[in-house]
């Protein structure tokens, strides 16, 4: 009896051990499966994190590049705002545009009438306070770069606004702030008065258009400060070689207009020759530079060439063009009425 109970107990114990071992293996197997699953999930999550990190870094790099490019586009304002002459503003803008974008050509025109001359150009109207000031015409800009172009165009418009305002202020002034001669607006008023007097008393009158030869090249070579000194010295020399009753005004950038009233042809010619010789015979000292320069002079006479101010100016301007064509440092009289 005792042996039977003993063996029964042992057998039961063995069965319990076997069952316990199976349960332990099952538990360990499940635990291992769970662990492996968690490990796999964590590896997957780590890969996702690394992928997302790489993606974020790439996006940040792209955004940083775009930001730098955009800032560079807005920095264009610094360059184009160095100038207050409209033509120089556009020349600077054109240079900046081509350094930032792929573009075949860009033009700026003031009136809509000129657009028809540019086939296959995209047209961007420019307005200041809802008032049209001109049109930017471009050819060859890709669709992907149009946003950049519009940013650059905005900067150009800001610089043009400044140039236009400066021009208007200059027009309201009596004298040119740089050279001290009459401003264009006031000069034309005086010219009108002198022409009326000449018509009333049947006097002759001469209009001289004087332009500094190769001024743009001199300006580019020596800089704008030297260019300013050149213009001031040219005006000084012109005034020294005309009468006090004669009128001189700054008509354009490096172009000046002189009115000689009650002057005969030989007197006009002598005055023009004095101006030409005075300027060409000496070097103009500007800061550390000594500049040799010449001017060209075109002359129109009332009543021989024209009867109205604008026609006289146009006639003198045409004569100036011929003086430059013939070699510069020349005087050319308009021979025929326009």
Summarize the structure.
This protein has 338 residues and is α+β, with helices and mostly antiparallel strands.
Describe the structure.
The structure is a single chain. The protein is an alpha+beta fold and 338 residues long. The protein folds into three domains: 1-74; 78-172, no CATH class; 184-333, Reverse transcriptase/Diguanylate cyclase domain (Alpha-Beta Plaits), CATH 3.30.70. It has helices spanning 2-74, 76-80, 86-100, 146-172, 184-201, 215-222, 224-240, 265-280, 309-325; strands at 105-109, 122-128, 131-139, 205-212, 247-250, 255-261, 283-286, 289-292, 295-302, 331-333. Strands 5-6-4-9-10 form a five-stranded mixed β-sheet, with helices on both faces. Helix 3 (86-100) runs antiparallel to helix 4 and helix 6 packs across helix 7 (224-240). The radius of gyration is 41 Å and the shape is rod-shaped. 25% of the residues are buried.
Entry keywords:
alpha+beta; Alpha-Beta Plaits; 3 domains; 3-stranded antiparallel sheet; 9 helices; 10 strands; 58% helix
Summarize the amount of helix as a percent range: 55-70%
The string of secondary-structure elements, in order, is HHHEEEHHEHHEEHEEEHE
Write the CATH fold name of the largest domain.
Answer: Alpha-Beta Plaits
Shape: rod-shaped
CATH architectural arrangement of the largest domain: 2-Layer Sandwich
CATH class of the largest domain: Alpha Beta
The structural class is: alpha+beta
CATH homologous superfamily identity of the largest domain: Reverse transcriptase/Diguanylate cyclase domain
């Amino acid at each position: 009896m005792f042996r039977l109970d003993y063996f029964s107990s042992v057998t039961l114990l063995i069965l319990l051990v076997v069952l316990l071992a199976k349960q332990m293996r099952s538990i360990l197997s499940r635990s291992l499966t769970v662990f492996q699953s968690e490990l796999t999930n964590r590896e997957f999550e780590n890969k996702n994190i690394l992928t997302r990190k790489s993606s974020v870094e790439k996006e940040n790099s792209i955004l940083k590049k775009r930001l730098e490019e955009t800032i560079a586009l807005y920095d264009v304002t610094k360059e184009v705002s160095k100038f207050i002459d409209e033509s120089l503003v556009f020349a600077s803008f054109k240079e900046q545009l081509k350094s930032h974008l792929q573009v075949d050509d860009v033009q700026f025109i003031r009136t809509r009438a000129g657009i028809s001359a540019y086939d296959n150009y995209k047209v961007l109207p420019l307005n200041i306070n809802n008032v049209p000031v001109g049109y930017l015409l471009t050819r060859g800009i890709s669709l992907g770069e149009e946003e950049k172009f519009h940013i650059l165009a905005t900067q150009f418009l800001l610089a043009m606004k400044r140039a236009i305002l400066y021009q208007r202020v200059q027009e309201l002034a009596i004298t040119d702030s740089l050279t001290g001669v009459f401003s264009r607006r006031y000069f034309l008023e005086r010219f009108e008065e002198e022409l009326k007097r000449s018509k009333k008393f049947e006097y002759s009158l001469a209009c001289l258009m004087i332009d500094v030869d190769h001024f743009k090249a001199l300006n580019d070579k020596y800089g704008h400060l030297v260019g300013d000194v050149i213009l001031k010295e040219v005006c000084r020399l012109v005034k020294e070689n005309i009468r006090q009753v004669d009128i001189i005004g700054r008509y354009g950038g490096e172009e000046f207009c002189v009115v000689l009233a009650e002057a005969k042809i030989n007197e006009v010619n002598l005055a023009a020759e004095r101006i030409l010789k005075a300027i060409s015979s000496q070097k103009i000292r500007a800061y550390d530079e000594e500049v040799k320069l010449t001017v060209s002079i075109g002359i129109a006479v009332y009543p021989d060439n024209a009867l109205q101010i604008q026609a006289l100016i146009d006639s003198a301007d045409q004569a100036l063009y011929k003086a430059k064509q013939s070699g510069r440092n020349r005087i050319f009289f308009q021979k025929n009425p326009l």
